[in-house]
Amino acid sequence: MLNFLESVNEAVAGIKDGSTVMIGGFGNAGQPFELIDALMDCGATDLTVVNNNAGQGDQGLALLIKEGRVRKMICSFPRQSDSWHFDAKFHAGEIELELVPQGNLAERIRAAGAGIGGFFTPTGYGTMLAEGKETRILDGRGQVFETPIHADVALIKAFQADGKGNLVYRKTARNFGPIMAAAAKHTVVQVSEIVPTGGLDPEVIVTPGIYVNSIVKVA
Amino acid sequence: MSVQSNDQAGGLTGIQTSDQPLGRDDLARLVARDIKPGSFVNLGIGQPTLVSNYLEPEQNITLHTENGMLGMGPVATGDQIDGDLINAGKIPVTELPGASYFHHADSFAIMRGGHLDICVLGAFQVSATGDLANWHTGAPDAIPAVGGAMDLATGAKDVFVMMTLLTREGVSKLVEACTYPLTGIGCVTRVYTDKAVFLTGPGGVQVRETFGCTLEELQKMVPVPLQAASAVAS
């Protein structure tokens, strides 16, 4: 069921304590700041957050971490010059980190949306990020078994939606949006524009509306 | 013909191609020159990014960025800056005609699937057999961050490393076995340093050329057996 909502607060109202929340974006590109701010306001806590990074500066995901609302981060690159809120929580032992090579992160998210039970990948073989994982030699290469990452909710940002919930993105702000939309039970999208059904060329739609539950326009 | 390090100096002059160590820009120019025309290339953050300054249009190189783009152009300035168009280092960049965008799983399928000809990465250490360590110092208080390094190291057809040969303390970063946590095993094919270009692989380390030192002098700095490359690789 697709809903067009008036406010970001309404869009995130159903997120429960203890949820796994995927948040789109690579750095600030494609990060749904308004939805994250609404998630701050709604009070949900004890969250597992899936994002490439672990927040930057004093906005968005970084504030959610600062306020102690994130129990665990699943990401590839938490350490940045301005990731001070994550750094502080990590050093204080107040946040759990599951560090995943970026391509494995993307493919594990994709696998969840595609109904794949797991896959073998050469990435990470022989490294500390594969410790404790099943391995095989396939096609002459060491490979590591990786499992899908499912989520209760995905919060993503797209450029345009049509009346059917079909989405197009802008440039490198696309990043994790399409695969997160498919991997979550409930996908919330903030868009810059809503166009009438038929207003997007079917040949260029990136995320078909079947993956989308709630859309809110953010100015 | 293989030339051992204890041979007569006269046999070594062919591989010393500069009487000075190379600076960062000269090294970037050398890497750029070595990239075959028409290649699809990913340049890692840091020193490898300099290579893009020396790619010639007639080389027809297509740059890939892990965050979902082929056909990346130079760094954006002024009115070109668009927060939705950034590179792996989160710096605003531009798009070239013929560019394409794709989501993250496709971007890493391009790497893992062996479609990139070359990636150029920085390194803490490279072993004689091409193991790479470039993501984590292993220090107890360090926050680990891997990003796309393991995927690039594993997926690209050729992995070139750019680094200074020695640490600030004068210790070789080309080592018998890496002591830092690994990024990938046996993945590095070539190491570009300020003092020499090394070819790494199962057969050990060959020196393609040296800068400001003889092979014998180089051997004194590096704790793995070196031999001159039997033929200059292009």
Automatic annotation (TrEMBL), chain A:
GO MF entry, a single one: 3-oxoadipate CoA-transferase activity
Recorded superkingdom: Bacteria
EC number: 2.8.3.6
Keywords: Transferase
Enzyme class: transferase
NCBIfam families, per database record: pcaI_scoA_fam
Family, per entry: Belongs to the 3-oxoacid CoA-transferase subunit A family.
Record's protein name: 3-oxoadipate CoA-transferase alpha subunit
Species of the source: Arthrobacter ginsengisoli
UniProtKB/TrEMBL annotation, chain B:
InterPro entries per the UniProt record, alphabetical: 3-oxoacid_CoA-transf_B, CoA_trans_fam_I, NagB/RpiA_transferase-like
Name of the featured protein: 3-oxoadipate CoA-transferase beta subunit
Annotated SUPFAM superfamilies: NagB/RpiA/CoA transferase-like (SSF100950)
UniProt keyword Transferase present: yes
Top EC class of this enzyme: transferase
Keywords associated with the record: Transferase
Assigned protein family: Belongs to the 3-oxoacid CoA-transferase subunit B family.
